[in-house]
User: Fold these one by one.
Assistant:
Number 1:
Amino acid sequence: MKELELYFGPQHLGMVGNFSITLKVEGDRILEATSNPGYLHRGFEKLMEYRTWIQNFPLVCRINVVEPDHMEMVYAMAVEKLANIEVPERAHWIRSIYLELARVGSHLFGLWAYSNMLGFDTVAQWAMYHRDLILDLFEELTGGRVYHIYIWPGGVRRDFPDGFADKIVKTLHSIGKCVPDYDDTFFNNPLFYERAHDIGKITQEEAKEWGGVGQVLRATGVPYDIRKVEPYAAYDKVDFKIPTRKEGDAYSRVWVIRDELIESVYLIFKLLDKLPLGKVYNRVPNPFKWKVPKGEAYVRVESSRGELGLYMVSNGEDKPYRVHFRTPSYPHGLTILEKVLKGASIADVGNTMISLYVTAPEIDR
């Protein structure tokens, strides 16, 4: 028998969660790949129809454990659009700062996973340590390290405590001064180039056709970012760059993640410099009796993995009538991953998978 069916994962360290891939191989060459997102977190959209508008906030966080904050944001924006709720100006700015901190933390987690996959253990430990510094900020602000439930319809749950802005700056400076170490040890390392260059390559046309967003699309040269295309929060008040590359391979995608991390740090500094005074929350009706007016809404944000959309319908009751998320990992982990793994080596499965920035709960929802 020349062909062999091989099960990759779900225990593989290259993937956060219960994700596995069934590979049909000949030698070490992949003939066919079938993604199996598993049963880690499932049924979110249906479960949300049985919970009140407020009760759904802890639930949406679980759709992406690594980065729950953009899930909070897109859900809050949908509720605000349906209920016609205004958000105070200061809350818009705080939301932007909060979401960029989440992006930094998520990219550090991605760098941990990717460098760990290639055997750069020192870099992985640096990245996880620096992510913990971001989680320290979230813990002080919200009381939670992983799930924060900070963004709320009408604003945010609380204002920044005294001295918190200075702590943000100090933390980001401590991370930023280590960028040369990351570059010398990992990004400019010939071993990283040899392992990632021309791996999982996607053309610009393929990325568009297959539904690629975020780094997958920007690594092919398309500067597409919802923060620019359809600004929300305070993103239209400050200027920032959209990092891109042209090769469309794993090497380019990881470099885009690195450049975005640095750009997010600069963006946070700009937001803090212009942060206006004022209140951070417009009160909503009693959440236990709140009935959102009939209607439908579609909103979208730029998560750390790309375009994140939410379509939601209200029938005028105390719970959503229908909910559907458009998550980046769905096309990345199913359509694109299966296509680019054909003809690849078994050794590059984890490499490719992490460069596509897949998180399993975003798929099996």
Note: The domain at 41-328 is CATH 1.10.645.10 (Cytochrome-c3 Hydrogenase; chain B).
Number 2:
Amino acid sequence: MTKWIDLISEYLQIVIGILLASIGLKAFLLPNGFLDGGVTGIAILISEKTQLDISYLLVGISIPFLGLAWYTVSRRIVYKSMVSIIGLALFIHFENFVPITEDKLLIAIFGGLFLGAGIGLTIKNGAVLDGAEILGIFANEYYGISIGKVILTFNVILFAITAKLLSVEVAMYSVLTYLVTAKVIDYMIEGFEDYIGLLIVSNEASALEKLLIEEVGTGMTIYQGVKGYGSRGQQEDLQVMQMVINRIDIRKTYKAINKVDKKAFIIEFDVNAIQGGILRKYLSKQGLKSLWSMTTG
């Protein structure tokens, strides 16, 4: 029963994603000749030059990319992506949204926002609306080229062709649309809260642990290091602290560390996803006291 509920939830969210993407296209981008990146951008460009129906182009151009997906991702993703792309094509074909604005900047920003929200929600539920990501996965799988570089190269070529065939201005606004779309996709997949990790090596680990719990309110993991080499020479029996914080707390965290040990060695790294553990937003003052009592008790 739970499996069916999860499946229905996934497809419901994919439908919402398709609706959002189609609003971005029909209410903003298409009436004004703006492009996005990837397969969607290719379909819009060809439609602008040939007057062919973009819904047919979207499905036709996606077929080779779905073929690549057959050899690079799971069959389930391929099937769901086929349904999603056909669904988007149908929405675009039958929807008749009235253009909301003629302001080019608003068109680029809000078109990218709706399109990115739709693509991001679809990806989050195991499907794709654009084949450029599949091309990136394929190139990474067989040639070791990073997915980001493949997608960037793909879109640089697309926007260069756009500047040549349409206009430099359209290409520039299309780049803005693509940037907004990409950022919104990240937000939809990873969430709006931006977390980073810190790895800290300090001779004042005990005092630093207490202060970070009191002032930042975050959980942490402490490793026992055997030996280390650095500006202080060789050190033994080190304590290494690892923690995850919201990026908004980074300045406060560094200030707390400097209060105790200005020479602490710190490595900062991006965190794509977290699950479980203790985050600051869940800790009341009583929770902080309990956390500290657990670490000292």
Note: Residues 195-296 form a domain with the Alpha-Beta Plaits fold (CATH 3.30.70.120).
Number 3:
Amino acid sequence: MITASSPTLAAILADAERLGFIYSSESQTGGLLAALAASKPNGRLLELGTGLGYGTCWLQSGLSADATLTTIEANMRNSQIAQSHLGSDKRIRFVVRDAGMWLQDAPANYYDLIFADSPAGKYTHLDEALQALNVGGIYVVDDMRRKTDGTDEYLEPARRLTEILTERPDFVVTQLTDFATGVLLAVRTRL
């Protein structure tokens, strides 16, 4: 298990600072992702929005030896940086493609955990993302409340996402509004 001070995470954050990349998840969210990944031994995990690999690293730390993680990133440079830090792990499959386009071809009822950290799978292509989730699978998103820098670009889409998910009879939803940047967890209960 890693901690927020792990050398790999520090190297990813150094790359983020060097490039002015401001979209990495918070370490609290990372710890949650590691625990959720650990709850899925032999699991098939999906991350939508690799970024530079910060969330990927946390997910990796919770993977069992026979679990797999597929992580999707549209930006080639970002994916290459993530791969430079994590690419030696054969449990991780890096895909450079638009997440929305990738979701259109995603297998149904396949993934045990989906971390939707890009607009696709969260604010667009939601039905496709949820269809890819297996029964008992966990759908997790962050950035569900106003950022500390005052930006609220995603407040309205986050509110709509919460409304859509809480109205679905095939999911149990909980909101961790005061946790990190706000996290929403939804567990699929039936097909």
Note: Helices lie at 7-19, 27-38, 54-62, 76-86, 99-104, 126-131, 155-167.
